[in-house]
Amino acid sequence: MISRRHILGSGLAVLPFALTRRGLAQGEAWPSRPIRLVVAWAPGGAVDTIARRLAPKLSESLGRPVVVENKSGATGTIGAAEVARAASDGHTLLAMDNTYAMLPYLFQRLPFDHATAFKPVTVSAFSPVMLAVHRDAPWRDLTALIAAAKREPEKITYGTGGIGSAPHFATAAFAQAAGIRMLHVPFRGAGEAVTNVLSRQVDLVMVSLGSALGHVQGGALRVLAMSGMHRTAVLPEVPTFREAGLPGFGPNGEGVVNWSGLAAPTGTPDAVVARLQAEMAKALEAQDMRDFLASIASEPGGMPPAAFAALLAEETVRWRDVAATSGIERQ
User: Fold this and answer.
1) Which of 164, 176, 203, 243 has the CA that lies 20 to 30 A from 69?
2) Where are the beta strands (DSSP E) in the chain?
3) Nearest residue to 276 via CA among 21, 39, 64, 28
């Protein structure tokens, strides 16, 4: 397994320049015009917010505007397909997240080759996932929740942003690790799932901290555990899954950790990818960016493209196994 500690500690790998038929012409400078950064999700989500924080920094360092465009729909495949069709010249990029590793198990056919359509550039941020219940729920800790679910299989309900959504996969992985069965209640988005926990229509959600931090800090939701190797400074009283009694949950015991990142169409010159990664890593080290990520309990990425590619490949295998054993069927 590839740990985030290993990835974050990796040095910058400078890759040789390679020309492609659809890529840059010999000797052409990059970037030569504005860069489109396509976000495959609606505005306001974590991927979009992080991309919009990074865009001005990349614009300054690259000397060309970096323009964020939202192309949402079909679990991120609409935006991804548009970037996959774009010229591989480094002027159209994709802001992706860990949902990309789940796509082969959600659709019978994709409008692009999942394994070869993109060159991973780097991860923007790693974000923990929290398991939250209503403040008046009877389970005071994760051990009590798991015990209750074992006593009465499928009585406890969990909400997600839809069948095959990232929270669905994350909760299925948790249930597998805990050896329990719960009842899945899909909604149209993670926000709606959180709302239904607040109204006590479902028992729990597993979502990123940014999706419900206000409700946690306001006392409406109680967090039983969070993913990651250590507690977050935003909610220092909340234990990790390992501390809460589920040490085997996810790679290295840290549970499901969301990530967002940057990718370019396959065939993009290696020199362009290396430059993008270097500028991203520099932007992520800026104090204001680190402060922003810390405020949403996230850690900056910035690893070399090869490490990101290895992470994506590893996660694609991981979610295959979760889909197979949880009954998540392709559409």
Assistant:
1) 164
2) 35-39, 66-70, 92-97, 118-134, 157-160, 183-186, 204-208, 221-226, 257-265, 299-300
3) 64
Give me the residues paired with residue 222 across strands. Answer: 133
- For residue 118, the cross-strand partners are 265
List the pLDDT tens digit at each of the 331 positions of the chain.
444 544 444 443 333 333 333 445 555 789 999 999 999 988 878 899 999 999 999 999 999 999 999 998 888 999 999 999 999 999 999 999 999 999 999 999 999 999 999 999 999 999 999 999 999 999 999 999 999 999 999 999 999 988 888 889 999 999 999 999 999 999 887 889 999 999 999 999 998 887 788 899 999 999 999 998 889 888 999 999 999 999 877 766 677 889 999 999 999 999 999 999 999 999 999 999 999 998 888 899 999 999 999 999 999 998 998 898 887 888 8
Cα–Cα distance for residue pair 272/278, rounded to 1 Å:
10
User: 3-state DSSP: the chain helix, strand, coil percent, rounded to 5?
Assistant: 40, 20, 40
Place of tokens 């690790």: 177
Torsion, Cα 157 161 163 167, to 10 degrees, reads: -70
Q: Coil, strand or helix: which one is 159?
A: strand
Is residue 55 within 8 A of residue 37, CB to CB? The reply is yes
Q: How does DSSP classify residue 17?
A: P
79: Cβ contacts below 8 Å, ≥ 6 apart? 38, 39, 40, 41, 70, 71, 72, 73, 94
* All residues at 6 or more sequence positions from 39 whose CB lies less than 8 Å from its CB, including other chains: 47, 48, 51, 68, 69, 70, 71, 72, 79, 95
158 vs 168: CA distance, rounded Å: 9
